[in-house]
Design brief:
By secondary structure, the chain is an alpha/beta fold. It is about 35% helix and about 15% strand. The chain has one domain: Rossmann fold. Helix 3 links the parallel strand 2 and strand 3. Helix 2 runs parallel beside helix 3.
Length: about 190
């Protein structure tokens, strides 16, 4: 099965440099434009399965992408397992370099330490395990055809690492730009 991973378009939180995990930040106009442009690059495709998270930024990205591609879809589902990492008490807080000095160290740990669990949140490792389980228990049994997952940076990068057999320690360094499309092939 060919699985296409598509990160959502730019959200308000991306634009404003906020931790936007499970908070439902909508797309910006640029994010909508990014989704359209990505869709135009896959004109006429058919997807047996399309999965999104339950957050509006992935659902809207999928809608725009599929319309721009003129894609046909057999089944579509929003899954909470695909939601972004929960940043806990740091949800919607600034990631900007101008943040208060007392927050700089914890923000650095949130972004770079795969084991760090923000208060009331989840670590990169926990997100990785959730994404990996989805790939193995939901995606692998689907069989042949193309599938599209429209999701979030930490989840999609985790799936990519797992599919490649690479260590989770690489997660903070992997690229994750808006509307990046990654193709995985699993058997």
């Amino acid at each position: 099965m060919a699985i296409y991973l598509l990160r959502h378009g730019q959200s308000i939180a991306n634009r404003d440099l906020l931790f936007s995990g499970t908070s439902d930040h909508p797309l910006t106009d640029l994010g909508r434009q990014q989704a359209r442009q990505a869709g135009k690059g896959m004109k006429g495709w058919h997807f047996e399965h399309v999965f999104t998270s339950t957050l509006s930024r992935t659902i809207e990205t999928a809608d725009i992408f599929l319309l721009a591609a003129g894609a046909t879809v057999h089944s579509r589902q929003a899954c909470p397992e695909l939601n972004e990492r929960d940043f806990g008490l740091y949800e919607s807080r600034s990631q900007s370099p101008e943040r208060p000095p007392e927050e700089r160290e914890i923000c650095k740990r949130i972004s770079n330490d795969v084991e760090f669990v923000p208060p009331d949140g989840e670590s990169m490792r926990q997100t990785h395990m959730r994404a990996r389980a989805f790939l193995e228990t939901v995606m692998r049994p689907l069989g042949d055809g193309n599938a599209l997952i429209v999701g979030h940076g930490n989840v999609l990068r985790s799936m990519t690492l797992h599919a490649l057999g690479w260590p989770i320690d690489l997660l903070p360094e992997m690229p994750s730009r808006n509307c990046l499309i990654t193709r995985l092939h699993i058997r």
